[in-house]
Amino acid sequence: MTAPTGVLRADVASLTAKINYGIKAALVASFAVAILVPPDAVAGKAMGFRAPLFLAPAVLVPAISRWREWDPYPHTADALLPLPFLIDTLGNLFGFYDRYAVTDDVLHTLNWVPLVAAFHAFRFRNVFDRRDALLLGYGFGAIAIVWWEVMEWAVSEDGFGGAGGLALTYGDTIGDLLLSSTGGLIGSILGVRLLGPAVDRAAGEGV
């Protein structure tokens, strides 16, 4: 019998599992380099402070899956959730943030695509209805960037982990809200179309 949603088909594919393991390995390796043999590009970036926060998504899905006894294993969500943190870490390791001023804007948009797709990867394991899914994903992405900006402000104000002095401005915050929510909209569109059920034209369902 065909799986009712795209995410259930992806979860059982061997390629998805390999991609998942590759993302996890790359994230761990990136922080190992950043902390043990830090290049100049990560000086003052508080990588030790970031490590537990950025690695937490890599263990969140396995922990929940074990608790809930999910079958098949949610490889799609498990790969998508830590992907934004890997991209951000690599951006710091390779010095893109320092060399290219546009990096922050690009990654705010790019990283919210897999983040919101991960929301749909969880949702469509149990919900086989596409109606309202687009706006639900878009709303999740908007909430995520609001709280991310709150966290950045707190770090900038108090200097947690030696990461103070972010020089945040009102313009930066508004730009980040707009760019990330736009990435979230793209992620929601892709998530619904690729991970959700096929459109039931007779029932009038769609994005």
Name the descriptors:
single chain, 207 residues, mainly alpha
What features would you describe in this structure?
- This protein has 207 residues and is mainly α.
- The protein contains 9 helices and no strands.
- Helix 2 packs antiparallel against helix 3, helix 5 packs antiparallel against helix 7 and helix 7 packs across helix 8.
- The longest helix is centred in the C-terminal third of the chain and has 26 residues, at 133-158.
Short description:
The protein is an all-alpha fold.
Topology:
Blueprint: H1 6-11, H2 14-36, H3 47-68, H4 75-80, H5 83-93, H6 96-99, H7 103-123, H8 133-158, H9 170-195
Roughly how much helix do the residues carry, as a percent range? over 70%
The strand count comes to 0
Quaternary state of the chains: single chain
Derived from helix and strand composition plus strand pairing, the structural class reads: mainly alpha
Could you list the spans in which at least 5 consecutive residues all have pLDDT below 50?
none
Mean pLDDT: 89
Strand content: under 5%
- Main sheet makeup: none
The ordered string of helix (H) and strand (E) elements is: HHHHHHHHH
**What is the 3D shape?**
globular
- The rounded distance between the terminal residues' Cα atoms is 24 Å
Radius of gyration, CA atoms, in whole angstroms: 18 Å
State the helix count.
9
